[in-house]
Fold this protein.
Amino acid sequence: MRAVVGIDLGTTHTAVATLDLDAPGALPLVSSTPQLVARGQLEERALLPSFVYFAHEGEGALALPWDESRRYCVGELARARAVEAPARVISSAKSWLCHPGVDRRGPLLPSAAADDVEKISPVEASFRLLDHIVEAWQTTHPEALSSHPVILTVPASFDAAARDLTVEAAYAAGLEDVTLLEEPQAALYAWIATQGERFRKHLSPGDVVLVVDIGGGTTDFSAIACREQGGALTLERIAVGDHILLGGDNMDLALAHLLAGKLSAQGKTLDRFQLASLAHACRAAKEQVLSPAAPERVAIAIAGRGSALLGNTLRTELTRAEVEASLLDGFFPAVARDARPAARARVGLTQLGLPYAADPAITKHLAAFLTRQSDALADGRPLLRPTAVLFNGGVVKSTVVRERLLSALNGWLVADGAPPVRVLPGEDPELAVARGAAFYGRVQGGHALKIVSATARAYYVGIESPAPAVPGVEPPIAAFCVAPFGMDEGTAAELPPHELGVIVGEPVQFRFFGSSVRRSDAAGALLEQWPEGELEELCPIEVTLPAEGRAEGDVVPVRLHAAITPVGTLLLEALPLEPLSDAERWKLELGVRSAS
């Protein structure tokens, strides 16, 4: 079979789907992954929990059909062991992979590792998840997974470094033909695949689809507009939200603190390891309580402290009323359309950890996204007006969560004079991204409608002008437009020649600017001055460009070449006018799908 494989490497679960490219009407099929669900018990399941567990020396090997001496496992057993031995389990590796404040190739995980557990990097943890998929595939398929093209999904707001590290982990696992795809786009592709040509009955030119993706570790918002071009329907991704480290993991922790309070009232105090165990136990309880056939209460039990084997278990229970009050009111409160996420002052010293969002109210983050994107589109409206919504991610499997989000969204729209949104009939939100990734193989072949992705900003690089030294006065900086507004991903900008030079062999800083309001600047426009607020300075890049045969500190005359890559980065290349070799060039990459 000439197949394409889609992999959703999720924070909480990983899923795999395939699509037969030789069968025109075929739909993506979920591929079950063999995994340990208990010691010595191997089962195939559609979802592979994204957990890595390191066995204690006394436990012996965690044998698999392809490795009888393995000392770690991933999947269902690893997730189950997180309740009993959280210091031996890695979870949320994907969230660490996109943490810019740590060395993502450094040994960080498990973050509270037991003394006999060797820590590994977020890249290594991602590799182990993908490596398990590659090895398990071989037990159920005659050909190697590496023989197929693989579409690997990432959050729309992943920065350039996180995207590169994801591909690095895939290459290490033996995957050779890898393409990255944004998760919200994959979710919409899955919906289109299921609907077939019927999707045109749900969408028409003028519609704007809001994709709300709330997973285990992140919340992503994307807006995709339906337009008409040459009498045909086209889709264009017009907005991407910030990277919000807020999702099911935060909700599990909130429930853990709630239950810790109940236990404290009984005179039972938890240490940090027990609190971690409680959070893992709350994950399964939350899924039960928010399911359609929800029980009124779920029993929770975690190991107590001490050496006693009997009578040392801490027991409590979680009720449906407690879950709905804690999660719905805490994470999905009813807010006004002008609500904004609260910011808090940072403490000077902090423990190494994930940069979670300061405000847990997802409805506030959604209101901020819609208002900011409306400002970017400059249509005079107080907020972006979606006409349809597509839900994705494990959190929105809950009917009550979807209803709470719809209530807030429709309240804002009606107040703005717009009709309520339609809900697109969706797939299983935990499997849709993998299915959509596989379907993207057909899109790549030109046999299905492609979502066009263009930059929602214009991008500029700062150019310093020579000036005499004056106390207290910095040399003037001009802004050189290297990527105009609306530049399609996968395309390059034609930059006119300018007399520019780069400094090699010593540390230098490149300054970048972005603008969502300057939509008429062409590539190569040089701004010596601009009205206040029209350009926003982005994070600078500090780097030492290799001299490669030149003297340190040399100023090398160059011309610039700029492109927006298919994975959503601005690739800026400085090409020497008189190169020492055919390969001499210097590259910088900047993420363009995030406002930060």
